[in-house]
Amino acid sequence: MEVEAEVLQSQVVDEAVLLRLLRRAGRLVARPALECLELLLDASTPAQVRFTVLAALTYLLVPIDLIPDFIPAAGFSDDLVAITALLGLCTRHLTPDIKRRAQRRLDRWFPLGR
Asked: End-to-end distance of the chain based on CA atoms, in angstroms?
C-alpha cells in the first residue's frame, strides 16, 4: 500500500486525502477477515477447518493470552502463531467462489471511489 506523501508531509491535514488513505487501509485489512468469514459460512468447508478458524479468531479476540501482550517482544508471539495458523488454513481452503463472495462483501462495505 502506498502512503500518500502529501498526507505525511503536510502540516494541515487534507481530510479527503486522509479519508481515501483510511479507506484503502480498511480494504487491505478487511479482505482477509472477510475471506475467513466466507470460509466459515461456506458449506463445503470441512468441520475441522471451521473449528480451527473459530479457535484462532477467538484466541485473537479474547483479551486473555498465554503470553500477555505487555511482555516486550514475546507478548505478541502467541498472537503471531494464531495468525499464521489462520492464514495457512485460509490459504489452503479458499476457493475462487469464496474469494468472489468476500470481494463482493468488501466492495459493499468499503466502496471504491468514495
From this structure: 18
